[in-house]
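Objective 1b: paired records.
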Amino acid sequence: MASLLDAQRLLFTPEGKPRISIISIAHLNDAERMFVVTLVLNEVIAWMRNQSGTGSLRAILYMDEIFGFFPPTANPPSKQPMLTLLMEAMRRTVPVGRTYSRSRIRPPRLTTRPSSRSAGTWS
């Protein structure tokens, strides 16, 4: 039996067609949310690293409300995989695009300058 958390199954049908998968964590407590987000990010990174180099996009990862998962001063378990995805984007050969969004910017302020410089985007 395959793992339920399998990036290939989340991203593609058995026939190889792209699919949309939504993972809702709204019903979980903070510790469970951190666990699930970190687990999903690491699964996407593992899938990404098993793909051959390409100039085309194969998947998009969208995360809404990243405030607690990517803070400017702390290092929760989810921060390292998020930084890994940003740094891999600099190589321009990875098949995963990512979009992070947040609405709460004060207080404390979440700065996007380091991530925007790393990915060559604007904030």
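Objective 1b, second protein:
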Amino acid sequence: MPTPAPERTLAGTPIPPPTPAQLEAQQHVAALQYAAGVAAARHGDERLDRPPFDRVRRYGEADAVFAQRLAALPPLVLANLQRLDEIATATHAAASDLEARLRDATAGRRRADRELMQAREQQARRAQRRSGLMPRARDRDEPEWSDRDVPILEATLVRATADVERLAPRLEAAREQAQGAGRLLHTCCQWVRDHAPEAQHQAVAHAAAVPAGKAVALDAIPAALAALRERIAALGAEREALKAAGVPVAEAVGALDSYLTRQQAEWTPDAAVFLQRAVPPGHAFNGILPRTEHTNFEGFLATLLGEALRPRLVASIEAAAVGRLLLSDAERAERLREIETEMHVATVTEERYAQRVEAGGRPAQRRADAPPVAVLCC
């Protein structure tokens, strides 16, 4: 059998055949693409967000770096990424199924409401005929209902309304869960793309080094997860507060003194104009007294009024410092390192809890903003 000619680019340059690693990556991307096609065919409702596999497919088809990362992923990271694929598929399927059920329930409620209205109108017409009045005739296409059908239709409407009220909040929760699973999968794919295999192996080793901690019974894990997530949220809030923390009062006063000293050194009065025999009108005090064209008004104030101005500025600094978080650079950096360490341990423990729940045959809802280094490397 003749050997096929190698493919060529538009410029005529031969395209080298794919390496075994690239073939493996292509097979993996093909599997994800198949899953995306199945999910899109099953859950193609426009009102529901598209499944997140479109993003994975785009990464694999349009981003060579991501395809290479997929081929070189540590086995643990690859298994976790595939599990996130499955979770995202399941959550989107559940949301799509609930949306279809809610549409059916809403249509059933409208139908029950219409039929009940027709039955009540026919009941009223029969009462008018019995009283000797001539009511409007029933439409030929309208089904005929008896008086005994009215309470049955009323009960049907009550049940249909209850179904709608029961399914609506469930659909909102399912949509939120599906969208969260999609965002988490997207973030994890981005992490895979942005980190070289060496960094991924280091992340796996770093996560494995987190102590197991005390054993928690399977039934107690939901409560432990809730408490752990509260702690994670508190650590995140403290981290944001530390980023906005101010410097201690002593450092602020030192910065003020440095500023005043620098301004005083930069201001040099220019009185040479007085040596002229004819001083230009309006120019005599230019560069000496504060005017609109003064070159260094701050230096003028610092030199002539600094002793009176400084106590007021210090008092203003002290008043602004009341109730505000103030830390030195060293204290702030040390606390941020402590928070990052505790946050890493907490998020790894959180993922281990989630995996234990799934191993017990129950679904585990992960946070959409869970760090990929914990979700993929445990």
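The radius of gyration is 37 Å. Confidence is low (pLDDT under 50) at residues 7-11, 34-53.
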